[in-house]
Design brief:
Layout lengths: L10 E4 L16 H14 L3 E4 L8 H18 L5 E3 L7 H15 L5 E4 L4 E6 L5 E6 L3 H14 L2 E6 L2 H12 L8 E7 L19 H11 L6 E6 L8 H7 L3 E4 L12 H15 L6 H8 L4
Parallel strand pairs: 1-2, 1-10, 2-3, 4-7, 7-8, 8-9, 9-10
Antiparallel strand pairs: 5-6
Helix pairs in contact: 1-2, 1-8, 2-3, 3-4, 7-8
Length: 300
């Protein structure tokens, strides 16, 4: 197997997510912390930033304002930053999209990506009997169509999370039908030993971070030309074999304190630095923001 040397590696950093200070005191939650962390992550080698705001339960204008408090200063300093916001705790598709519509309207090309979760899964942790419990994270096919339509209408690139193989099947149907919006990036999420909220050990969803599991996803993507990355929820990507395997196959890396779980208390910049070191070891350069914009076809 030949290494795709010379192909720049896109490093995406999910800077916070639902992670709290009690789990890792380095996680940025407030606007000033997010500002400092994003700049250090970009300087460390990240070229895409995924961020939550301070409160997942804010909706519409309140949620948008919470994002803008952190991101207007960042974009004033680094206007070429490729970033995207996440969803909110809402049941209706209108409420799920409302803050994204406001951000797209007010930021324009300064918000070049948007998240798309094209499927449903059970998010689990273990109860007192050691059995899985949790909740169902649900997106209907109509919800999925609404998210892709938003990307089309607002001319933003979809960052497509793949928690389960069926999510990739749905994505590939859009691709084959010529309905996948411009700039799509496929993120292959593998399940580490901890649940995604750090409550303890529990396999919440999807496939484990093994070479066989990655090869199955890569086989599904064969011939599509879609860029893809690997990430481990509830674990440490760099302790698994899939980080190196992904780089050898031409893939990219997704890390950050949203997904990381383990014995260490790293910063986002430290996690990115580990990705940079592995990319250099494998013989691939690290993508700049300009490289990433070109790869995704983002007019930014």
């Amino acid at each position: 197997m030949s290494t795709p040397s010379g192909t720049p590696v896109v490093i995406e950093c999910a800077i916070n997510g639902a992670t709290r200070k009690t789990r890792n005191p380095n996680v940025p939650r407030q606007p000033d912390e997010i500002h400092a962390d994003v700049l250090s992550s970009l300087n460390a080698g990240a070229s895409i930033i995924h961020a939550h705001n301070a409160n997942f339960h804010l909706l519409g204008r309140e949620a948008a304002n919470d994002y803008l408090a952190a991101w207007r200063p960042i974009l004033a300093e680094r206007p070429d930053t490729i970033w995207y916001a996440t969803g909110v705790a809402a049941s209706s598709i209108e409420d799920r999209l409302a803050h994204l519509e406001i951000l797209a309207e007010e930021l324009g090309p300064a918000m070049p990506m948007a998240y798309v979760d094209p499927g449903s899964t059970n998010v689990a942790w273990l109860d007192a009997d050691g059995l899985p419990t949790g909740y169902s994270y649900v997106h209907s096919f109509e919800d999925i169509k609404s998210f892709f339509s938003f990307c089309d209408r607002r001319a933003v690139a979809p960052s497509i999370a793949i928690y389960e193989p069926g999510w990739l099947q749905t994505t590939l149907h859009y691709h084959r039908a010529g309905r996948l919006p411009r700039g799509a990036m496929v993120k292959l999420y593998f399940c580490g030993p901890y649940d995604i909220f750090g409550r303890g050990r529990a396999a919440s969803y999807g496939l484990p971070p093994t070479v066989a599991a990655l090869d199955a996803y890569v086989g599904m993507l064969d011939g599509t030309g879609l860029p893809w990355s690997v990430s481990v929820w509830g674990g440490d990507l760099m302790e698994t074999p899939i980080a190196r395997r992904a780089l050898e196959l031409g893939g990219h890396l997704h890390v950050g304190l949203e997904e990381y779980a383990g014995d260490r208390r790293p910063t986002n910049a430290e996690l990115i630095g580990e990705c940079v070191a592995l990319a250099i070891e494998v013989g691939r350069p690290v993508a700049t923001t300009a490289h990433t914009a070109e790869l995704l076809g983002i007019n930014h």
